[in-house]
Write a sequence for this structure.
């Protein structure tokens, strides 16, 4: 199963803003909120230190991809299963799982890019 499988999303796609992504994470993956906050703080610190918005842009891109995957139950379930396989399977199984994880991430990023146009 890939990220292009049609299904009913849990929530509408939020805009890639910190506030909207935080609300989406709180709604569909509340256990991830501490990581969201910690990574936001790190990105903000890096942005301040370097006088550069790139860390915040990477943060919002990363979390927009996470939310896009999590808002689609079948994709989120498959992603978690593949992560487990990549971490605990034999070498060949781990490579196959990693390749599929990469495809899901690529397809998700492409869908988000198309949505922004």
């Amino acid at each position: 199963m890939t990220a292009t499988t049609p299904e009913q999303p849990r929530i509408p796609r939020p805009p890639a803003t910190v506030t909207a992504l935080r609300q989406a994470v709180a709604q569909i993956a509340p256990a991830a909120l501490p990581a969201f906050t910690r990574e936001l703080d790190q990105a903000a610190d890096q942005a301040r230190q370097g006088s550069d918005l790139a860390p915040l842009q990477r943060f919002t891109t990363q979390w927009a991809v996470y939310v896009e995957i999590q808002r689609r139950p079948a994709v989120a379930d498959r992603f978690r299963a593949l992560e487990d396989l990549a971490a605990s399977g034999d070498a060949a199984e781990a490579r196959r799982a990693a390749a599929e994880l990469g495809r899901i991430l690529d397809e998700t990023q492409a869908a988000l890019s198309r949505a922004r146009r």
